[in-house]
Amino acid sequence: MTLGAVMLEVRDLDAFYGENQALRGVAFDLGEGHIRTLLGANGAGKTTVLRALCGMVRTNGAIRFDGKAIAGWATEDIVRLGIAHVPEGRGTFLRVTVEENLQLGAMTRRDRAGIAADIERVYGHFPRLRERRNQQAGTLSGGEQQMLAVGRGLMLRRRLMLLDEPSFGLAPLIVEAPFEILREVNRETGVAMLVVE
Predict the structure, then answer these.
(1) 38, 45, 33, 140: which is closest to 152 by C-alpha?
(2) In this predicted model, what pLDDT tens digit does every residue of 69-102 receive, in sequence order?
(3) Residue 164: phi, psi to the nearest 5?
(4) Residue 2: which of 193, 187, 195 has the closest Cα?
(5) 134-188, pLDDT tens digit by residue?
(6) Contact, 128 vs 151, CB < 8 A?
(7) 70: CB partners within 8 A, 6+ apart
(8) What is the rounded CA–CA span in Å between residue 13 and residue 155?
(9) Longest dimension (CA), the chain
């Protein structure tokens, strides 16, 4: 995999919840094919950065993706650019099965063979999900739901994945596993990742 030019540029980013300012002057770049991590304590604004990039909160400042200014765009338009957001707290569809959750992740795609291959690839990364493929997602453990959320994000086949605490809810013995998987996916596909922990 070749690491390319800057894909995401953030300059002087401020973010607001109503009248309350949650971010002030955030700036960073993310190169094509790179992985970057935002670390910090609870309440430091890491999740707000991801929400700002997805158009989920009001912002000031510059956000550029592939050279296009996207600050102020609607979330659905940002998703169409090739940006996937895997939120903290799992965010799975609880009343449908594991496999149906993965299929929902590929909802905007039309390549049936590619979707089937990607589901198998997700099961290869997360064998526990294969065992639970026909189980309702709401009955999974917290760690299994987190695996499913990451797997669903992979199904989108996006150029940039925004991952909010992918180790959330995982037992200490397996907390390294999602990061190994993300590194492997990055090497295989070249998808850029912005990871919050």
Answers:
(1) 140
(2) 999 999 989 988 889 888 876 667 889 999 999 9
(3) -100, 105
(4) 187
(5) 999 999 988 788 888 888 888 887 899 999 887 766 666 666 777 888 888 899 8
(6) no
(7) 55, 63, 64, 77, 78, 81
(8) 29
(9) 48
